[in-house]
Amino acid sequence: MTAHFPRTRREVREGLIPSHALLERAGFIRQVAAGVYALLPLGWRVHQRICQIIFAEMERGGVQNVQLPILQPESLWQQSGRWAKYVQSGTMFVTTEQQSRQPYGLAPTAEEVVTALVAAELSGWRELPLHLHQIGPKFRDELRPRMGLLRGREFSMSDAYSFDPDEDGMRASFDMYRGIYRRIFEAVGLRSCIAVQADSGAIGGQGSSEFMAVCDVGEDELLTCDHCDYGANMERAASRYTRPSYSDERRTIRWVPTPGIRTVEELERHFADQGITAQHMVKTIICTVNPKGNDPYDIAVCIRGDLGINLVKVRNALGADEVVPALDPVVREVTGAEVGFAGPIGQRNVRILFDQSVCGMSNFLCGYNTTDHHALDVNFGGELPEPEHYYDLHNAAEGHGCPNCDEGRLGISRGIEVGHIFMLQQGYARALDVSFLDQSGEAQVPWMGCYGIGTTRLMQAIVEQNRDGQGICWPEAVAPYQAHILTANHEADVQRELADRLYEQLSARGIDVLYDDRGESAGVKFADADLIGCPRRITVGRLAAEGKVELRLRHTGEQQEFTCEEVLQLLSSIPTSC
Ligand code: ATP
Ligand code: MG
């Protein structure tokens, strides 16, 4: 510890989530710029151990390792059609080569590079399946980097890519990685990690699962069934919701003044005496599609009043890059009315998407693009033509029925996305001209998958799930050191000599030990040991004269006296590698 860089800190800036604050205080990481972090010696050790576990599991699955470049030529991303998408969304860091003025992107991911490499080498079916993996830096110009390593602009990712001769092969590879990922997340010491169905986002393809470290600070909302194993990200989750029995009698439309009454809640209160609830309302939300693209346009989405709109589902229904709620001036322009009075009736400026919840409703309330007014007893077929299509655009909510089984109810929890596996199908392979000759000599396009783990994000997720009021409690498999030796009084010759000897003997047996050889008080040393969080603390104190030390386990707080020989024996039985 006298040589160790840096010293621990008592205080860090306010407002950090626990895992971030602990990693900073204990000196594992330091922020260099927004979303850009340095791994310091302790952090580097933990990250290395995580990577070793990943490499070992990958190799067991027959995955080969590569190191792909960070500088990726624009031309490759033009071929896949993703350059504009990544540049316009502001995700890609772009740099330019000085002589040729050729643009390059800094690797946000590596589908293009790896697919192009395989395109140049692959010839026949015997070379498949092929699995390539790397762990390397990734760059994404995140709009809001936050929570330390959880969302950085520069971070480290384990990314693997599979190439199979057919769809069945792709599915088998996907299942193989699902197994590998489960083992990795268990091995690194996550306490609760679940796989959920996910949206595929900018990576594309169809069919993907996310691995979520369940904890309160997670940015993702997850829905899980209390009866079966259904789990899905909110972005993707389906659900069953109850429908009131709408009356068959079709009443005549009425236009009523609703001065300053805009929200569903306000309308419910206003019409309480008429028994009009949110389930008898159709709300209309104006959205802007591809706001950062070259041709942004607006749409309206209609949904039952008590349900929330899922903008990721809207985006997918339109095949768009991004859908956001329209800004107030846009809403005024589209509806010709103040915000809060949008409706499907007489809306000719924009396309309207109707959610399935609206299908079958009768005599409902909705806006009609007139300030301070709403329409009552609206029915499809009258002023409002029956929609040609209904889409699933609603947000699943706590208490909704499970879409996978009849009995279950959905509950919400939060999670940190530590891994994401995708079935990419053939899109990238086609775009980058990959082909191989099958058994009958015909040219075929391989089926791909891609698989990513944020290794730096994972490091912090492990801390989020393994800590207490005193500091971090590293799981054995990824701890920076297996044991932390300290002298209660370093001035006392007996203690110092015994500790020196124990440190040397443990080190000689290949056990990683951190030795607090500072002249600090025992209290300061105990606090630092708890903060740093190695699984075992060995205190060399008054009992040193009898050749005894005290061994304390960080996770449980259990402690016991042992002779040095016993400690040597105990620690020698810890598995030192994965
Ligand atoms: P998110 O939804 O959190 O932005 P993503 O869907 O963009 O993640 P992928 O493209 O699937 O992420 O990347 C694979 C993995 O890389 C993620 O599961 C996550 O663990 C990690 N990752 C992604 N973005 C970041 C980031 N900004 N900082 C740290 N890790 C990240
Ligand atoms: Mg992202």
Alpha plus pi helix count? 14
- What structural class should be given to the helix and strand makeup? alpha+beta
Task: Give the end-to-end Cα distance, rounded to a whole number of Å.
Answer: 26 Å
The coarse overall form would be globular
Low-confidence stretches: none
Strand content: 25-35%
Report the strand count.
30
Bound molecules: adenosine-5'-triphosphate, magnesium ion
Considering DSSP H and I runs of 4 or more, what fraction of the residues is helical?
A: 25-40%
Cα gyration radius (Å): 29 Å
Average predicted local confidence, pLDDT:
96
Q: Please give the largest β-sheet.
A: 9 strands, mixed
Report on the architecture of this protein:
With 578 residues, the protein is an alpha+beta fold. Helices cover 26% and strands 27% of the residues. It has 14 helices and 30 strands. The strands form eight sheets. Strands 3, 7, 8, 9, 10, 11, 12, 20 and 23 form a nine-stranded mixed sheet that branches. A five-stranded mixed sheet has the order 27-26-28-29-30, sandwiched between helices. A hairpin with a 2-residue loop joins strand 24 (467-468) and strand 25 (471-472). The longest helix is centred in the first third of the chain and has 21 residues, at 167-187. The protein is globular and about 95 Å long. The relative contact order is 0.14. The model has no long low-confidence stretch (mean pLDDT 96).
